[in-house]
């Protein structure tokens, strides 16, 4: 038997130092030689691939529309241009109601695995990060990754004590490449804001948020710490045993490597394969813990596509990949709690309006709290009071932009992020829980409004799941 105590460990053994959790600022507005050159490359690659796609369509249309061919060319360019643009493609694919259908359909390719980096490069990142040879750290290391994404890839390993784990390993050199791309995108967003739609949508603020999220995502210590925090928060109330997340193993983590327990399961959108489970409870449990994280705990999973939600063999729902984590400011958490409370219990949106006024969004708006509250509720209530299968995410986002235009302010990005994640859940609910109304399900809010839920249950005799 191997003596685990004698096994070498990495620099974060026992937990990361405080300095590792600091994300240093990196100037976004810089636009110099590298960014100018990159802008030229982006323009050439996109035009080149679109022209090639259109020429191929002219020669052999095969019943396809010209928009389909052009969209394929754009996505071809994204794949050539690398990780930042693959992420843009993923955003387009996962927000199909917002973007033209041909482009959204073509961008589905960006959700697939990308080619992995060379095995020697992946091993070199692990050994440089952890300070020891692979064979000394692990009893086995699978050179063929389980999955490869734009920023990192995942390798299966076995510890010397027999535990099965996975390593999330960043692609070498990814930080510098994405920083240049984001600076170039920010310059492009500034140009686009000459048009009213992009000004109201606050395109530069979106790039700023993406920049902040990316710089954080590329700090593996921060990602692992947030994963550990959200995992611990799952069970804070003692009633979410049907949902889990992988345990972080700090002894084998480093600046570009995260080690965690290995979980095996089926992505939530493989509906036929999970049909033998109670699918309605699966989605209700998943939304319940997500709502609690948004409204009560703070940090919440900011990318709940099906690849990050698995159904395990024992029927639990597992949340994976915490590269994107959001956290609403306390004021917005209060506003959203008031919104849910009004929708569930008393229909009074005036408290919500008072919170919005406190943030300064409506400082120059001559309207009562009741009118402001109703305006915001009109944008969000369709998510909460209708069958999610009838909701288009584009309706929600465009309603938010319309409110921003009405008030002369930028759309509140926090609510757009909130709506985007609900948009993922809408897709699953259509198949897993037809007719389920999120905003009227007391089960989801038993820890958010414990007294009100208990009173309503006692009044109606409704039985909530354990």
Q: What report would you give on this structure?
A:
This protein has 17 helices and eleven strands. A hairpin with a 5-residue loop joins strand 3 (152-158) and strand 4 (164-170). Helix 14 (369-385) runs antiparallel to helix 15 (393-407). The strands form three sheets. Strands 1, 2, 3, 4 and 6 form a five-stranded antiparallel beta sheet that branches. The protein has a four-stranded mixed beta sheet with strand order 5-10-9-7. It has a two-stranded antiparallel ribbon with strand order 8-11. The protein is an alpha+beta fold. Among the domains are: 33-111 and 175-218, no CATH class; 118-171 and 221-262, Phosphorylase Kinase, domain 1, CATH 3.30.200. This is AarF/ABC1/UbiB kinase family protein.
**Rg (C-alpha, Å):** 23 Å
Distance between the termini: 42 Å
What share of residues are in beta strands? 5-15%
Q: Please provide the count of β strands.
A: 11
In round numbers, the mean pLDDT is 85
What class do helices, strands and sheet pairing give?
A: alpha+beta
Largest sheet: 5 strands, antiparallel
Helix content: 40-55%
Query: Secondary-structure element order, as H and E?
Result: HHHHHHEEEEHHHHEEEHEEEEHHHHHH
The helix tally amounts to: 17
**Shape estimate:** globular
Low-confidence stretches: none
Domain ABC1 atypical kinase-like: 111-353
Keywords: Kinase, Membrane, Transferase, Transmembrane, Transmembrane helix
Protein name: AarF/ABC1/UbiB kinase family protein
GO molecular function: kinase activity
């Amino acid at each position: 038997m191997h003596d685990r105590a004698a096994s070498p460990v990495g620099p974060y053994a026992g937990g990361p130092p405080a300095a590792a959790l600091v994300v240093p600022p990196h100037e976004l507005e810089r636009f110099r030689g590298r960014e100018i050159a990159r802008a030229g490359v982006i323009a050439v690659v996109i035009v080149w691939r679109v022209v090639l796609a259109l020429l191929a369509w002219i020669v052999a249309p095969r019943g396809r529309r010209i928009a389909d061919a052009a969209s394929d060319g754009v996505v071809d360019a994204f794949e050539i241009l690398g990780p930042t643009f693959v992420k843009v493609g993923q955003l387009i694919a996962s927000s199909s109601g917002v973007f033209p259908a041909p482009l959204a359909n073509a961008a589905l390719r960006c959700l697939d695995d990308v080619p992995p980096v060379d095995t020697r490069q992946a091993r070199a990142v692990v050994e440089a990060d952890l300070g020891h040879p692979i064979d000394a750290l692990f009893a086995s290391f699978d050179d063929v990754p389980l999955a490869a994404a734009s920023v990192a890839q995942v390798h299966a390993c076995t510890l010397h004590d027999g535990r099965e784990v996975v390593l999330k390993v960043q692609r070498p050199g990814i930080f510098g490449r994405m920083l240049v791309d984001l600076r170039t995108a920010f310059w492009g967003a500034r140009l686009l804001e000459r048009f009213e739609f992009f000004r109201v949508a606050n395109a530069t603020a979106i790039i700023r948020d993406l920049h902040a999220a990316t710089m954080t995502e590329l700090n593996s210590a921060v990602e692992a710490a947030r994963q550990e925090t959200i995992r611990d928060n799952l069970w804070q109330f003692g009633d979410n045993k049907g949902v889990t997340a992988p345990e972080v193993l700090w002894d084998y983590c480093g600046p570009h490597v995260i080690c965690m327990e290995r979980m095996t399961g089926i992505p939530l959108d493989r509906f036929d394969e999970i049909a033998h489970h109670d699918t309605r409870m699966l989605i209700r449990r998943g939304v319940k813990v997500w709502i609690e994280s948004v409204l009560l705990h703070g940090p919440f999973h900011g990318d709940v596509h099906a690849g990050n939600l698995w159904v395990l063999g024992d029927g639990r729902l597992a949340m994976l990949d915490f590269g994107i984590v959001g956290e609403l400011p306390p004021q917005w958490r209060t506003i959203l709690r008031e919104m849910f409370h009004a929708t569930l219990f008393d229909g009074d949106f005036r408290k919500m309006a008072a919170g919005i006024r406190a943030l300064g969004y409506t400082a120059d708006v001559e309207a009562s709290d009741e009118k402001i509250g109703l305006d915001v509720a009109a944008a969000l209530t369709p998510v909460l009071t209708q069958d999610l299968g009838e909701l288009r995410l584009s309706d929600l986002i465009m309603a938010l932009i319309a409110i921003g235009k009405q008030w002369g302010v930028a759309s509140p990005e926090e609510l757009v992020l909130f709506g985007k994640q609900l948009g993922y859940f809408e897709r699953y609910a259509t198949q897993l829980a037809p007719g389920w109304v999120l905003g009227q399900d007391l089960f989801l809010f038993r820890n958010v409004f414990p007294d009100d839920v208990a009173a309503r249950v006692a009044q109606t005799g409704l039985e909530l799941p354990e």
